[in-house]
Write a structure and sequence with these properties.
- By secondary structure, the chain is an alpha+beta fold.
- The chain folds into 2 domains: 174 residues, Jelly Rolls (Sandwich), CATH 2.60.120.280; 106 residues, Arc Repressor Mutant, subunit A, CATH 1.10.10.
- The chain contains 11 helices and 11 strands.
- Strands 1-2-3-10-5-8-11 form a 7-stranded antiparallel beta sheet.
- A hairpin with a 2-residue loop joins strand 6 and strand 7.
- Helix 2 runs parallel beside helix 4, helix 3 runs antiparallel to helix 4 and helix 8 crosses helix 11.
- The protein starts with a strand and ends with a helix.
Length: 287
């Protein structure tokens, strides 16, 4: 269960809050979980320094509400000011500390696909970043404090809240800058508007003004897949809709989805959905 503590560490003011939690076996194996989280009011005396493998909680996320926090990590110094974040692996040597009076929210977390999210959010050693959605991040952390402060913390709600927090971080990280985000959206719109046509990578990249190689890397960072696979998924999704909402033949639908060969359409459709087009149609229509 959660355990609220009023922190007395050096440099931390007495009205700070921290909640400890020992995750259940199920949470450790299946969910996102937290070990402790809180809200700290501190000054320049606050400093945490740890060596490699000295601390065994996986990750620490810090959101600065007021003031400034520094992080010495992997041979570099990072800083986060108001409405900025720090995210790093606590199992590696690190030191984080406040500059002057500082107010920050934090959570030590792990589990589920935490590794994946941290790697994505912190690409290119971006362990300090400015989110595009600071109010949403702060609100997500505040909800976590509510969940963790309950007499019997609801681990599934906590897991969902941590997942939302990480998703918000990814959506607002440097990797997802507004310019690049608009480029990816423009590319997806082009794909959607030209599903029935033969589209090449060069055609799609040309809509963004980027060369195909750079565009492919950018697109994968945003979508976790290649432009080709994303286009294929769009076509298969469109095919599903046509199979259910029309009586058109598989041949006609394959052409409407950009597959000149219905055999190829059927093969890829089954690979993506587990059913042939006709099996899919029968399973989603009334007898």
């Amino acid at each position: 269960m959660g355990n609220q503590q009023f922190h007395r560490e050096k440099g931390v003011y007495g009205n700070s809050l921290m909640y400890f939690h020992t995750p259940s076996t199920a949470a450790l194996e299946q969910l996102f979980y937290y070990n402790y989280c809180g809200l700290f009011y501190c000054n320049s005396l606050y400093c945490i320094r740890r060596a490699d493998n000295e601390f065994y909680e996986p990750y620490l996320f810090i959101f600065v509400k007021e003031g400034c926090m520094y992080l010495d990590y992997k041979g570099r110094r990072y800083e986060a000011h108001k409405n900025e974040c720090l995210l790093f692996d606590c199992r590696l040597a690190h030191c984080y500390y406040a500059k002057g009076d500082t107010l920050f929210q934090f959570i030590h977390f792990g589990g589920n696909i935490s590794d994946y999210y941290v790697q994505r959010i912190c690409q290119n050693d971006q362990y300090a970043f400015t989110p595009s959605n600071p109010q949403d991040l702060s609100a997500a952390l505040s909800r976590l404090l509510v969940y963790t402060g309950e007499p019997v913390p609801q681990e599934h709600m906590i897991s969902a809240a941590i997942h939302q927090l990480l998703a918000l971080c990814l959506a607002g990280s440097a990797t997802h800058s507004s310019l690049n985000g608009q480029r990816v959206i423009k590319a997806v719109r082009y794909m959607t508007d030209h599903l029935a046509e033969p589209i090449s990578l060069e055609d799609i990249a040309g809509q963004t003004g980027l060369n195909p190689s750079y565009f492919s890397r950018l697109f994968r960072r945003y979508t976790d897949t290649s432009p080709y696979d994303y286009l294929t998924n769009l076509r298969i999704s469109h095919g599903k809709m046509l199979l259910i909402t029309t009586s058109e033949s598989v041949t006609s639908i394959s052409e409407a989805c950009g597959f000149g060969d219905p055999v190829q359409f059927t093969k890829i459709f089954k690979k993506k959905s587990g059913f042939t087009p006709l099996q899919f149609r029968r399973s989603h229509t009334s007898a």
